[in-house]
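testing teh design pipeline on a random one, pls ignore if ur not involved
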């Protein structure tokens, strides 16, 4: 059963719950939660951002990350995770903004840096999942070499951003389709 079907069944069962039958409502909550958990690593975009910043800052001969570049690395991390595992790396939405894909919650945390590098001391989270670290290291190696503006240019030429109206959520399905190539 797809997540959509689970949710639709859950809505019908919620009506039963409202009428007094709670057994199916509890069962549906468990089913939907299990389906969602199997489709995501369940990480926070903040923790992924912290990992990327800490890892980047620990590497020799790399520039510190700006918020703009961090946003693009989060987008690529999400896409690469979907490509290789079928799972979203983090739960927060990615939105199509003027300068490309952005996780608004992470942007708001680091926006005060403006064009300057994020230079606060950050402890690298330990995800306890080797797949996550392999994905993030690959993303850093493959995309971290580019400037923020090169990454903006790249994302502007990719269908997930191009086909999403500005200020709308870039769907995981669009990302899945694009990164599967």
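output:
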């Amino acid at each position: 059963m797809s997540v959509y079907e689970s949710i639709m069944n859950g809505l019908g069962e919620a009506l039963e719950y409202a009428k007094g039958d709670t057994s199916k409502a509890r069962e549906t909550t468990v089913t939907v939660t299990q389906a969602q958990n199997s489709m995501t690593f369940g990480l926070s975009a903040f923790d992924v951002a912290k990992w990327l910043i800490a890892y980047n800052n620990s590497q020799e001969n790399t520039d510190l990350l700006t918020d703009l570049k961090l946003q693009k690395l989060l987008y690529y991390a999400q896409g690469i995770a979907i490509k290789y595992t079928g799972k979203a790396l983090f739960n927060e939405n990615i939105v199509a903004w003027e300068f490309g894909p952005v996780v608004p919650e992470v942007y708001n945390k680091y926006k005060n840096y403006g064009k300057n590098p994020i230079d606060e001391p950050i402890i690298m989270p330990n995800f306890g999942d080797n797949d996550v670290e392999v994905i993030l290291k690959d993303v850093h190696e493959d995309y971290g070499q580019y400037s923020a503006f090169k990454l903006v240019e790249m994302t502007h030429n990719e269908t997930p951003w191009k086909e999403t109206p500005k200020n709308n959520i870039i769907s995981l399905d669009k990302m899945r389709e694009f990164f599967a190539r």
